Amino acid sequence: xxxxxxxxxxxxxxxxxxxxxxxxxxxxxxxxxxxxxxxxxxxxxxxxxxxxxxxxxxxxxxxxxxxxxxxxxxxxxxxxxxxxxxxxxxxxxxxxxxxxxxxxxxxxxxxxxxxxxxxxxxxxxxxxxxxxxxxxxxxxxxxxxxxxxxxxxxxxxxxxxxxxxxxxxxxxxxxxxxxxxxxxxxxxxxxxxxxxxxxxxxxxxxxxxxxxxxxxxxxxxxxxxxxxxxxxxxxxxxxxxxxxxxxxxxxxxxxxxxxxxxxxxxxxxxxxxxxxxxxxxxxxxxxxxxxxxxxxxxxxxxxxxxxxxxxxxxxxxxxxxxxxxxxxxxxxxxxxxxxxxxxxxxxxxxxxxxxxxxxxxxxxxxxxxxxxxxxxxxxxxxxx
Length: 384
Fold this sequence. Notes:
By secondary structure, this protein is α+β, with helices and mostly antiparallel strands. Among the domains are: 3-77, no CATH class; 197-321, 2-Layer Sandwich (Nucleotidyltransferase, domain 5), CATH 3.30.420. It has helices spanning 3-15, 53-58, 63-76, 137-148, 153-162, 169-187, 238-254, 267-276, 301-317, 326-338, 349-352, 362-376, and strands at 20-24, 27-31, 38-43, 48-50, 81-83, 99-107, 110-117, 123-125, 197-207, 210-219, 225-231, 260-262, 286-288, 355-357. The strands form four sheets. The chain has a five-stranded mixed β-sheet with strand order 11-10-9-12-13, sandwiched between helices. Strand 9 (197-207) and strand 10 (210-219) form a beta hairpin. The longest helix is centred in the middle third of the chain and has 19 residues, at 169-187. The protein is globular.
């Protein structure tokens, strides 16, 4: 077999659906084209290696290595969908672009630029998504950024007072409730391009002093936090229902089921996997249980890192007050769309999933697009 034919056969494997399973960043499973088995393709300090006879005995770059490399290259060519800042330089009454600045409106919480339309003579301010708010949009988005990067409500209040904005910490919390709900509904209509390997884990936390568990589902490759579920426990029969709801949410949000699921040894995950993800049709979803802390390809450090982020946020607020708190949903938005990750070379998980948020203030971009989508009552297009 020549090198050219190996490359051609590898390309054919890469372009055939469900032939390659990504176990980790350095380990892939490739379906055998002859005997119905599979081969392990690894990437270490020496380079790519494969367990097939062609590579093991001849020492050549086999078709399975070619397939993984080509598949990886194809995956990097995700067409990025951009959510950009809105061009609000039109009259909200007659949609005319013949508008001029007409002074500053001074509020106790900040200043707003006023405009006048030369056609209909309507005077207005550009504050889509922030209608009726006393504080300026910049103040509100700054408060949200401070809060989700680790500050408490009262520390955010103190910072804003240094800027001359006199509000209470309760007002900051109301901003968070309002805009997290608005963005969550908008972003739920967007399908991220996640990989075929997902991870699930649970963490203990307190809600109104009662012990609860937060189940989280994350994409292994992009670290996109796909779904969440707050549960009462993880040992009773109800734990299987919670885990099943988590996987069902994941399938609905991602628009597909994973080919590989990595969890710890919690029995509820296995039962939920059989209920929601297992199928007798090929390719069958694989469940890797008993994920270790480190040293193996299926260690669960990525999920533990996400749990650590959530734990840091929970410590600042000194426990959560209700199960449907906007703090968890808000942090999920922050993690996916605004927080750069070193493991992703400074990109956000949304960037890695083909969703790019543009603008100097990404909070404002999301809020304005969410408000516009609600105003026109038309669902956003899927990115899937």
